[in-house]
Structure prediction request, 220 residues.
Amino acid sequence: GEDVEQSLFLSVREGDSSVINCTYTDSSSTYLYWYKQEPGAGLQLLTYIFSNMDMKQDQRLTVLLNKKDKHLSLRIADTQTGDSAIYFCAVRDDKIIFGKGTRLHILP
Amino acid sequence: EAQVTQNPRYLITVTGKKLTVTCSQNMNHEYMSWYRQDPGLGLRQIYYSMNVEVTDKGDVPEGYKVSRKEKRNFPLILESPSPNQTSLYFCASSLLTDTEAFFGQGTRLTVV
Prediction:
């Protein structure tokens, strides 16, 4: 079945860029998603990319999609303390399949 | 305000005592689902529903039941809870299978 992999932890200094990577096995997903989970809260859709796009930029967020390598990344520019959260990569066929989440820790 | 509402937010119960976690959405979404989130395992889907009276098993359905008698509600039922069902549970809904999913705030369940 579909598998979505991402590293579990990432530490970044405040002001630097964060890059969270994700790989997936199924290429039939129309949309690929990044969800953010803040402490004690549910998941919120952060951004998404349509499968026929290579890049999507939304303010401080840049999503890159390499369909050939089945690789998705999320770049957060000028990382702030409020960006501290768990970030989930997700793909979708008949259901959403999530990665295990990357916990982003911001260093002062 | 568009939202998915779960209740309760926190629940401590004893083994074998039946419980229900409610989920309600006000967006007229067709698709609803339940997930459990466990450390190191991420989110795993328990059950999902494509529409009223249509429910299907997800990846970890054992020990759970659901019902979808009306579009807005999708309760999760644990007939005889066990300690291995201690987890953080999320309900989600979306208009279609391929559109943004909205999540509830989560229910932290502890079974002792």
About this structure: The longest strand of chain B covers residues 42-51. The CA atoms of residues 87 and 109 of chain B lie 6 Å apart. The two ends of chain B are 36 Å apart (CA to CA).
